[in-house]
Each structure stands twice: as C-alpha cells, then as structure tokens.
Design brief:
The protein is of the alpha/beta class. It has a single domain, classed as Carbamate kinase (3-Layer(aba) Sandwich). Helices cover 42% and strands 21% of the residues. It has 10 helices and 14 strands. It has an 8-stranded mixed β-sheet with strand order 5-8-2-1-11-13-14-12, with helices on both faces. A two-stranded antiparallel ribbon has the order 3-4. The protein has a two-stranded antiparallel sheet with strand order 6-7. A hairpin with a 2-residue loop joins strand 3 and strand 4. The longest helix is centred in the middle third of the chain and has 24 residues. The radius of gyration is 19 Å and the shape is globular. The termini are far apart.
Length: 292
C-alpha cells in the first residue's frame, strides 16, 4: 500500500516541471470522431474529459476542437446517402452540410461538453457560426459546401478562456452571406491554434502516430520537422485522410505554434502522458530540429 502511494507521489513530482512550464499556456486539442468511438477497455470520452479538466485545474488553458466524421457517415448511411471522399475531404452537397451541422452541433458537441462538465462546470460549446468565429469560403466547386478557413475570430475564444471556461468548438463555418460550410476539423484546429498563439496543438486520432511504412509499426516517426513532412507528403508516404492533419501540423508550426503532436486517442490518459511525463507518445512536430 505504501509502495503504491509512493509511486503515485513520484508521478506527481515528475509532473511538476511540466505543470510549471505549461501554466497559463493555450493547448488546442483536436478530438477526432474516430477517437470518440473509444475502445472496449475503457470509456474513452470520460477519460478524455477527466484529462481536459485536470489540465485546466493545473493552470493550462485547453481548447477542444472536435470532428465527427464517422458519426456523419453513419447518419448519412441511415438516410440512404453514400459518403464520397477526395484527398481526405468529404464531398458535401446541400443536404450533406445540413447533416454535418446536425451531427457536429446537435450531437457530438453537447456530448463532449456534457462529459467535461460532469467533472466541473468548465466546458462551453460553440460552433464556427457563433460570433463569426470561423469565416470560410468554398474550397472547390467539385467538393460542394466544403470550406477553407479565411479567418478565425480569436475574441470569441479569448473571452471564454479569460473567464476560465474550456471552449469546445464544432467545425462548421460560414461565409459573409451566412452560408454554412463543413470544414475539416484538422484544418480548423490548426487555424485556431495559430489564432490563439497556442503552445501546443494536439491531434487525438485512432492511430499511434505517423509511420514511414504504414504497414510497419516499428517505423513510427517519433520526432520530425515541417520540411521532413513536406517530403513525406510529396513522395506519397503520407496520403488520404492523414494529409489534412499533417498539412495543418506543418502550417501551424511554421506560423508560430511551438509544437504539434499526433497521438493515439485510444490510449488511456494519452494527453497526460504526453504533456506531464518524460515519456514521448506518438509523433511530435517542431520547427527547430536543434531543440530536440
């Protein structure tokens, strides 16, 4: 019993330098729809919520940006619509953008907010439509109502953060005429991190990180730079749905976010393992290789 208590105390002591380092810093966490699906071993959403609340209680300023791709696909299937993707982006007609809004704003966002607020009344759900948070334009006529982010209005999130709330952002944006657009959540997370001057941008997904060989677990890339990732995209090593995620990592780090991480959201307490211990998890991206 004493040994267990001593082990827990040692873990807290190990976390202290990291708590000091990240106190007052914004950490943007993208919680993917695949991570939300969880595993049979634990309630993934509840564990995620506990980690986010702990981050807030030790002085960090977490901001959650969530996707909902699998949930959107599931509802589309129930409604008799087939999902189509091009370069990792969902082709979105008028009916599909309404389905995306229903799922992201009406289902996934309140689900995450409720899970966090079980452990403290901190979370506030917002969408990119609220207060002009996310302005968007159409990316490509062939993709329909898929948007590119024109700008993020940080004032909306800054006010919530200053009042010690945890913003939970659904990734639907609007253009100047109020037309809604479905925007890739990876892209939004990167833009939000840049707009807030975040210390870290963390992607929780259903893979352990980036691999040089997708079929070889031993080829996991622990640390890398934007230039190296550009090369991996160019040679086809990184493809499909990972392209938006990796591209937003690259862009965010080049625009001032100190580090970006791609982590396996199915691992219990993966956020705390990455942020508050010496053990590196997943893939870390940083601009200056010498800082390693």
């Amino acid at each position: 019993m004493i040994g267990d208590a001593a082990s827990r105390a040692a873990t807290l002591v190990e976390a202290l330098p990291f708590i000091r380092r990240f106190a007052g810093k914004v950490v943007v966490v993208k919680y993917g729809g695949n991570a939300l699906a969880g595993t049979s071993g634990h309630d993934a959403l509840d564990v995620f919520a506990r980690d986010i609340v702990l981050m807030r209680l030790v002085g960090m300023r977490p901001v959650v940006v969530h996707g909902g791709g699998p949930q959107i696909s599931e509802l589309m299937s129930k409604l008799g619509k087939e999902s189509e993707f091009r370069n990792g982006l969902r082709v979105t007609d008028a009916e599909t953008v309404d389905i995306a809004r229903m799922v992201l704003i009406g289902q996934v966002n309140p689900q995450i907010v409720s899970a966090i607020n079980v452990h403290g009344d901190f979370a506030v759900g917002v969408s990119g439509e609220d207060g002009g948070l996310i302005r968007a334009v159409a990316r490509d006529p062939d993709l329909g109502y898929v948007g590119d982010v024109v700008r993020v209005n940080p004032a909306v999130l800054d006010r919530l953060i200053e009042d010690e709330f945890i913003p939970v952002v659904a990734t639907v944006g609007t253009d100047e005429d109020g037309q809604a657009y479905n925007i890739n959540a990876d892209t939004v997370a990167g833009e939000v991190a840049v707009a807030l001057g975040a210390e870290k941008l963390v992607y929780l997904t259903d893979v352990e990180g980036l691999r040089r060989d997708v079929d070889d677990p031993d080829s996991l890339i622990r640390q890398t730079t934007p230039d190296e990732l550009d090369d991996l995209i160019a040679d086809g090593t990184i493809a499909g749905g990972m392209i938006p995620k990796v591209s937003s990592c690259v862009d965010a780090v080049r625009r001032g976010v100190r580090r970006a991480h791609i982590l396996d959201g199915r691992i219990e307490h993966v956020l705390l393992l990455e942020l508050l211990t010496l053990e590196g998890i997943g893939t870390m991206v940083e601009e200056n290789e010498e800082e390693r």
